[in-house]
Amino acid sequence: MSHWSQDAVFYHIYPLGFAGAPEYNTEPAPVPRLDKLSDWIPHLKELGVNALYLGPLFHSSRHGYDTRDYYQVDWRLGDNDSFARLCDELHQNGIRVILDGVFNHVGREFWAFRDVQEHGQSSPYCSWFHDLNFGGPSPMGDPFWYTGWQGHYELVKLNLRNPAVVEHLLGAVGMWMDAFHIDGLRLDAADCVDMDFFRTLRAFVKGRDPGFWLMGEIIHGDYARWANPDTLDSVTNYECWKGLWSAHNSKNYFEIAHSLNRQFGPGGIYQSLCLYNFTENHDVDRLASTLSDPAHLNNLYSLLYTMPGAPSLYYGGEWALEGKKQNGSDAPLRPCLELSEMLERDQSLCAHLAKLSAIRAAFPALRYGGYENVVIKNEQLVFRRATGEQRVYVLLNLSHDAFSLEFPHSEPVLQDVLNGDAIYNNDGGRTWLTLPPCSAKILVGAPDKFTWS
What we know:
This protein is of the alpha/beta class.
């Protein structure tokens, strides 16, 4: 049975950066900086976006992943009422809302941890934190020890085996569902989270909303370990994130073709999953700073929107915004953007992305179809997406020279919906054509030329 995520085009925003919030949370009262997102809604709709993933936005001390209070929107962004109004506006415009579920750890200013600091062993919350004990001091100078996330002791790992902790977190999720009507969660550091918690979370959210979407941040490992009928619906496809830019930089389409075939081709290990596909996010360098040749941007996004899974844009990526980590800081990846300034930039990539969204929405094979490699060369790739009723062939040429190729198919005609609806006839069970430099074609099989919108 299909799920709305298969029809989704995601847009990812890191709220604290996007809204220009101060680095440290010292606000004495809420400041509704995130309200500016309302002005971006027409832009999102023009891009064909129908799902918005907002990174951490609950009360925290600094970067959002050091939570103070799961029940309160960060005052640097607004308050619960202002965010509820924003969510209503997004939903009224056909855009689903996904929030960051940061459940592996909290910040040192989390209220229960502060209680432990104040009351020591007499605090009723000592058991809320993983491996907290009074056998020695912490690296942060506390008279007790605890586990930090990957050695970062400003992030205190929660004890997700404690029923009181689980109840507190599920209570927060329930509040988000009731107050903001959210449609899903992205689970931060999912590889560190207790699997039993994911099972409990799934039962809780699906019992309230069977269509609620759970997606985990997974960088390495077998994605099916986390995305399966018992735990999460999807995970981040970091394998193809790397393959998308690396295949272009090394002029080696074999790399991404191998990954896509391994994941989704005949006998593919993730055929039953709709993975979350992306080219950049708040943790990795911007695509425009990673891709060696800007002429490959359009091809890379053409591949993102036609491969199996759900495509995601990271805010600013539609204008090829640059940004690299500097001295260990992610701040250059998470800028404050003003829409009026962005609209003064070159809009050609935006137009390309809008067209890709329209094509993806118009042809079910690109959302639900199987995957099969047809032609693989270092600088050219042809693959097929197919359902029982429709076949679509995607052709890519990353060379700066035109390239003539042939490929087999059984369609009466192929119509290039990406480039003016040009028609290519079947010539004895195959088609010969020339791909212009650094270009793509999206060829839809049909009995004859058709109209679409």
